[in-house]
What we know:
By secondary structure, this protein is an alpha/beta fold. It has 14 helices and eleven strands. It has helices at residues 3-6, 11-19, 25-43, 51-66, 109-116, 161-168, 185-191, 225-235, 279-294, 308-332, 342-347, 354-374, 407-411, 441-454, and strands spanning 46-49, 78-82, 120-125, 175-179, 194-197, 217-222, 265-268, 298-300, 380-384, 415-423, 429-436. Strand 7, helix 9 and strand 8 form a beta-alpha-beta unit. Helix 6 (161-168) runs parallel beside helix 7 (185-191). It is globular and about 60 Å long.
Amino acid sequence: MSLPDLIQLPVHELSKRIMARDLSPIDLTEAYLKRIQERDPKLQAFVEVYADDARLAAQGADAAIRSGHAVGPLHGIPIALKDLIEIEGRIVTGGCEAWQGRVARRTATVARRLVSHGMIVLGKTHTVEFAMGGWGTNSRRGTPWNPWDPQRKRSPGGSSSGSGVAVSGGLAPWAVGTDTGGSVRLPASWCGITGLKTTIGRVSTYGVLPLSPTLDTPGPMARSAEDAALLYAAMQGADPLDPRTERLPYADPMAQLKRGVRGLRLARMPQPERQFASTDVLAAYDRSLTELERLGAEIVPVDLPFAFADLAAFNLRIMAVESYAILRELIDDENSPLDPHVRPRIAAGRGVTAQAYVEALQVREEMKRKFGAAMEGLDALLTPTTMTTAVPLDEIDQATAPAHYTRFGNFLDLCALSLPNGFGADGLPTSLQIACRAYDEATALRIGWAYQAGTQWHLRRPPE
């Protein structure tokens, strides 16, 4: 196949071709490395590309598969990792210029797990400094270019900006991001891809640079719900180095992925929350509800015991306190080369009292219970992912955040899938968010798969 054709294939199709020996991991890896070489000078998705090591891994994968020693269906599939994920001996900066020479002394469990499945790490992708920001900007280390607008630089979404751009721009078939307030879902929305915010404990955070340990969750970023399910299945599992993972049995999302949505009861967001979304976003959202209803789901109203903005404020309070506790030496050092937009976000944690922090944690538990009661008999809550399409960089107000529809999911420790559901009048992607109860990723992915089986938004690609 030609390079353009090859990089358009979803991972589940690439896997079939590799396992049938119709496609070599060597050719696939070379195709992506060539694509990175050609397109990344503009897109700036990667902070480092491991070209030589990726080629060696591809040769090993090809030899193993040809000799009948494939370790599984993902053997030989390339992947990109956010620059928070440690690989021993490799630089990990967390998007911070002050850490540009920081060499990891351990390998993150999620990276080790993906390599054990035979995946080939192409390199590390850009992130907002310390992952503290939803716009995707990094004033000191570079902001990736959202590929949906070749002429004007727009927000790629953050903090997993590079991972979103890498997948959207065809530089990697899929990638790993992290989500503390929307950092997988926001770039998924604005880059026109699919992203899964996992529940705490589903994926080990050992070896992932922390921002807010109470809220941090690694998650897959891919072109479809089916690919996101495959990557999520490979990422999850018990890890003695992260005790929160050990009490959870492995949950295979593939078993019910293609069962459809007939009989499911899905809640539309409360009417007051609609005022925060643009006309184009609301139009795409309403069409999505109609499509899911056509596919057999029941769309029902829900009376939530909170406003999204109220929970977002509590979520931000937890993020600020915990990130300041971790990073205070850098934040308090006026000479440290930090992003001027990120420093004050984290420094805000300095002024939060212990009482206010504990209050936020108590409210969190109370609201989890109330949300569970409100969602009794319902399978998911549907909202837009972002309020608008991608904003031009020169119009961003860094004192605000684009996470109105996402932070409540972190605060309540839900799982949530974001996926393309249309385009605005400006030709930029819109996105649907499917939020489900804690540890019910399989249902979110099932709904997402059914929606994508009935639509083609996820098949659209950015202009070259």
